[in-house]
Specification:
The protein is mostly helical. The chain is about 70% helix and about 5% strand.
Length: about 850
């Protein structure tokens, strides 16, 4: 959607136009948005970074992730963003990596100014020069121009100072890119200060630059942007429509249909904001038509705004129709960031239809999905107010109060308009639970905020829902009237009636409350006048609704009648044409049918002969293919038999070696020789079990690890005979390894488990040995053998061990191109990460 915020993500045309004229950076003013679900993968990539440049880029990506976590109210994550940015900056300085240095400086400056730490931001600016200095100056200026509250006196001075410095430096460097960025932000600065004409001068300078270069697309872009940034007001309405039309005409002149459609959307949004609903609807329909012409499917935005317009007009059926169409389009395109807006629209519509259950359901969905800062800024507190009202109407006051407190705590107001709504929401909740004093306090706080909001209404740089003016005074008046405190309600209701451009339903309600207060005070003349006005407005609204319904039904009826008449006329014309054609074509068809029949018979005869000839040829070819298939099948069976025989003989030979070692060990007393013989027997048995599985299984190139590891563990348990004092825990993913990896893997596993059984639990000590084999996705696997025994002695150097077993593990890890890590806390843990590149296939296992 077109938002009234400035994130200068210039399109590629601006980069191309400025190439060669800027020396330092073309960085954006917006922090790149990286999803939080990328955090784990980025940390893994950082651990395996191959060079400094990659490490810097990954550190920056981590800082972006934590920055956006901080933006979505995880405020403690901002420090993490600063930490990773500082690391990226330090490494960039060491390696002279300019991009890493400028991006880390930018992010640190952005975080400092977001936290209103102007001194910290300026310190970072003072460390920079050239185009990067311009960029950071604009970042500071942008913050003060686009802050939630309108630009104040001090903020205005700061913004003007830094932006003028940025403009001056861009002119000296002849940097067109940053010259445009500086002028665009200065234009918004003057807009925010109410100097519309002065702000337009900067945008006209930008457009003039592109006119001189005959860049039509860029001219159109900035005609539209000039109006997007301008605060909406009745006195500028016609001028803004005219400028938008210029942008549309320029885009259409070069065939940029999709871009023209987006400008129609911005133009329609302006008309909707100015309550010019009929014109807004026409513009949204034009946008939909152009998007379809351009092949675009993302028409949910136009549907959502059409639903809002029809809702404002009271045409709930049409509003519901467009809201549901928008929701279907959003779900089809997986545009989840718009779900919260669609749910809000459905909540409003069902609330007006007096369907409280559905209404509260969709309001809650809107709040749950509305995690983006833009949604919270524009709609968050308005949806909260509506949701709380539905809960209170359903008698769930305690639930409403608890929810409101939690929401306001987790998502504090970002503007004075949100502050006013938050006080109104809490006042409503406290009133509903019977805490009248607290409710009155909150309503009075709401009125205090309303004073500020009225003074700044229309000056904000983004549009947000509000209850400024008559609605706020009606709310506090209604509170006092509901508790029979008519004298206190009177001044607020008087003030509410003095506001201009009140919606008719609100004026009706205020007059009715005035009738009640005047009646209670004995002012019967005034009470009668207010009652008559209330009844008049009520009747007018009912008449208007009936008229709308009647007009809608008339249009539907007339449309249906016209369609029916058109269909009847078309049918009559078709019948007449058919009769004329039948008489003329009957004779032609009879002769043509005879000729066609003769031709068809000839074709069928010819095709039958060809078919017979082809069948004979195909039969001969099929016999040759069958013979070759039989021969190939025989060769495959022979190859499979030979492969099985090889594995069987290897296994038998290894078994013979095992038997020889058993015989040899029988004649040797306890000591190092016997230990060496037993260790060798275990290693040979581990390999023999591999070949046994290959011989007995249906897969000839791979070994299924879950069953193999279980068998190997059982063998070692039987061999070492630890009894019940040592417990084994196996956590094995369904992984298969080919023979070239399975053999060294088996020997590694044998050594690791044997070491745990031999050395980890001396003197009858009890404990646990854990064996894990995990797949990290793709081709990466992790083997972990851990025990909670006494651990490896501190004297053992794991990088150059004296132990033959550890040397074997390190050597076999290298054979499978893996990485070895030995952890000594709480026992011993051997972790090997390795990749498997060759394909292994079997039923029920991973393939890689």
């Amino acid at each position: 959607m077109y938002k009234k915020s400035f994130l200068l993500c210039f399109p590629l045309w601006l980069l191309a136009w400025c190439t060669g004229q800027c020396q330092n950076t073309h960085g954006d003013l917006a922090v790149p948005k990286v999803a939080a679900n990328m955090l784990s993968a980025t940390l893994v990539d950082l651990n395996g970074a191959r060079d400094d440049t990659m490490e810097i880029r990954l550190l920056l990506r981590l800082s972006y992730i934590y920055y956006w976590l901080d933006e979505t109210r995880h405020h403690h994550e901002g420090d993490s963003a600063v930490f990773f940015a500082q690391q990226a900056m330090a490494l960039s300085s060491q390696t002279n990596f300019t991009e890493g240095l400028t991006e880390s400086e930018f992010l640190r400056c952005r975080i400092s100014i977001d936290r209103s730490d102007l001194a910290g931001a300026k310190r970072i600016v003072d460390m920079t020069f050239g185009e990067e200095r311009i960029r950071l100056l604009i970042v500071i200026g942008e913050h003060y121009v686009l802050q939630a509250a309108p630009v104040g006196k001090d903020s205005s001075k700061i913004a003007y100072s830094v932006l003028m410095e940025a403009l001056s430096l861009a002119e000296r460097l002849h940097s067109n890119y940053w010259l445009i960025a500086s002028m665009a932000m200065l234009g918004q600065y003057y807009y925010a200060n109410g100097q519309i004409t002065r702000g337009q001068e900067f945008f006209f300078r930008i457009i003039k630059m592109f006119e001189q270069n005959h860049d039509v697309a860029s001219q159109a872009y900035w005609w539209a942007k000039m109006e997007n940034y301008m605060p909406y007001a009745p006195e500028t309405y016609s001028m803004q429509l005219s400028d938008y039309q210029k942008a549309i005409d320029l885009y259409l002149s070069i065939g940029e249909t999709a871009e023209a459609a987006e400008v129609y959307g911005a133009m329609a949004f302006l008309a909707k904001t100015m309550n010019d609903f009929d014109y807004a609807k026409k513009l949204y329909f034009k946008k939909i038509a152009l998007l379809k012409e351009a092949g675009g499917r993302n028409i949910y935005e136009a549907f959502l705004y059409l639903a809002e317009i029809y809702y404002a007009e009271g045409n709930l059926d049409s509003a519901l129709n467009y809201a549901l169409q928008a929701l279907r389009n959003i779900e089809l395109l997986h545009a989840d960031e718009y779900l919260s807006v669609a749910y809000k629209s459905l909540g409003d519509i069902y609330r007006s239809m007096n369907e409280g259950g559905r209404s509260s359901y969709y309001y809650r969905l809107s709040i749950d999905y509305g995690e983006s800062p833009a949604f919270k800024k524009n709609y968050g507190y308005a949806v909260l107010r509506s949701y709380i009202a539905t809960l209170v109407s359903q008698g769930k006051a305690s639930e409403a109060l608890a929810f409101a407190k939690n929401y306001i705590s987790a998502s504090p107001p970002v503007s004075m308009f949100d502050e006013e709504i938050s006080e109104n929401v809490l006042g409503t909740c406290y009133d509903a639970v019977g805490n009248i004093d607290m409710a009155e306090t909150k309503y009075l706080e709401m009125i205090k905020w309303d004073t500020f909001c009225q003074a700044n209404l229309g000056k904000e740089m983004y549009l947000t829902a509000n209850i400024v003016g008559a609605e706020a005074y009606y709310e506090i008046g209604k509170f006092y009237v509901s508790h029979d405190r008519y004298r206190e309600a009177q001044p607020y209701l008087d003030k509410a009636l003095k506001f201009e451009n009140k919606p008719a339903p609100l004026e009706k309600d205020v007059n009715y409350l005035q009738f009640k207060t005047d009646s209670a005070s004995g002012n019967l003349g005034s009470a009668i006048r207010h009652y008559q006005r209330s009844v008049f407005l009520k009747d007018s609204l009912l008449a208007r609704e009936r008229l709308k319904e009647l007009n809608f039904l008339n249009v539907q009826f007339e449309t249906a009648e016209k369609e029916r008449n058109i269909k009847l006329l078309e049918k009559e014309a078709q019948l007449q044409n058919r009769k004329l054609q039948e008489s003329a074509q009957l004779r032609m068809w009879s002769g043509a049918a005879m000729l066609l029949l003769v031709a068809l018979l000839a074709i069928l005869y010819s095709r039958n002969r060809l078919k017979n000839k082809k069948n004979i040829q195909l039969q001969g070819q099929q016999e040759i293919i069958n013979e070759k298939n039989l021969s190939l099948s025989q060769l495959v069976r022979e190859k499979e038999w030979l492969l099985k025989e090889v594995h069987h003989r290897v296994k038998n030979n290894l078994q013979i070696v095992t038997s020889l070692l058993n015989s040899q060990s029988a004649g040797v007393g306890e000591g190092p020789v016997l230990d060496a013989l037993l260790e060798g027997k275990h290693r040979i048995q581990a390999m023999a079990m591999i070949h046994q599985r290959l011989y007995n299984g249906d897969e000839y190139g791979c070994v299924l690890m879950p069953s193999y590891i279980s068998e190997l563990v059982d063998y070692l348990k039987e061999s070492f005979n630890p009894g019940t004092r040592i417990i084994f825990k196996l956590c094995i993913d369904p992984v298969a390894l080919n023979l070239s990896v399975a053999v060294p893997f088996a020997l590694i596993l044998n050594e690791a488990i044997s070491n745990s059984l031999k050395h980890g639990f001396p003197d009858g000590r009890e404990g646990t040995v854990t064996v894990e084999l995990r797949s990290l996705g793709g081709q990466t696997k992790v083997l972990k053998v851990a025990d909670d025994g006494i651990g490896i002695p501190p004297s053992v150097d794991e990088s150059n061990p004296n132990s033959f077993g550890l040397r074997l593990i390190r050597g076999f890890t290298s054979d499978i191109s893996g990485t070895l890590k030995i952890e000594r806390s709480r026992g011993t843990s051997i972790v090997i990460v390795f990749d498997v590149n060759e394909e292994a296939r079997f039923s029920g296992a991973n393939t890689f």
